[in-house]
Amino acid sequence: MKKVRIAVLGYGHLGKWHCQKVEANKDSAEFVAIVEKFPAGQEAARSNHPNVKVVGDIKDIINEIDGAFVVTPTSTHFELVKYLLENNKHVFCEKPLCSNDSEAEDLTRIANGKNVVLQVGHSERFHEAWEKLKDQFHKLTPPFSIRINRVAPFKGRATDVDVVQDLAIHDLDLMLYLFKQKPLQIKANGYKIRTQNWDHANIHLSLEQNCDAHIVVGRNSVKEMRDLEVVTTDGMITVDLFTNKIYHATNSQFEDGTFVKEESYQKRDHLLLEHQHFYASILQSSSPVIGLKDGLNAVHLVDCALKSIGSGSPVPVKLG
Length: 320
Ligand SMILES: NC(=O)c1ccc[n+]([C@@H]2O[C@H](COP(=O)([O-])OP(=O)(O)OC[C@H]3O[C@@H](n4cnc5c(N)ncnc54)[C@H](O)[C@@H]3O)[C@@H](O)[C@H]2O)c1
Hints:
Dihydrodipicolinate Reductase, domain 2; single chain
């Protein structure tokens, strides 16, 4: 295969951006179709991509593609990913891969033995900051504490799901990826403020070796905040994901006599990087950068957090 024949499923807020990235990767991808369920979206897709077939159902073009980007609402991911896998298609699924543990188990069974790439859209992994810090984070001496904030004013988007599925999933995945200590249990609470789902959640994770993580996510905040902070007896590292700055505050002086160092990092096009990795994995038959296990582990942590919010009790974590 020289080029991957691609369909994008869902021409909504993010689907439009995915379509642009398919167009931007003409050397690796042939843009075959956009699958959009509703007529208004179909019309917009036709007008913006006149050379691409626009249909209302994936079944109409399943035999014309090698792979697909699933960018539809979360509640539809399971059925669409299942259908694509059963038809031996490569899949890029936006986060979350599915809605709960039971769907995750079914997907594991279906994906086993399939010779296809399944990549999950945990786009927050692509910050350049993590390339600079990941080795350092892996070598941290326990105990340490992690604090992650991801809050923003109400925008009315993704209200079909709660903030744990929509936002905290990024941070739960990042915590597994960046730090070596595994979660043992989760205790969380939530608030319904503007919708029928959790609009704000505090998630506390007890990790191995007396480490812990506290994740705060909200969609009814007074201002936008996205940062990660880790503290040990050696000092503190803070990453501001908005201003693209890293701060180190240590227990010993830097060369210039200060105890705090500031470092900038480059903002990157995460979606473009995700596309490049996806096509490369398919064309070179290599493992996806963020695969099934990562997707399922993140869904399990979300499931535990939601169970804890519902019951008010701590919930044990059992990662695959
Ligand atoms: N990685 C990230 O940072 C990030 C950011 C935003 C959204 N997302 C994820 O992307 C997904 C889509 O989010 P969005 O904000 O674009 O949603 P959206 O509601 O704006 O768009 C979804 C589109 O899918 C269409 N659709 C629904 N069912 C369909 C089906 N069966 N077949 C084809 N089309 C169908 C809808 O008509 C709509 O146009 C969600 O799962 C969300 O979690 C990820």
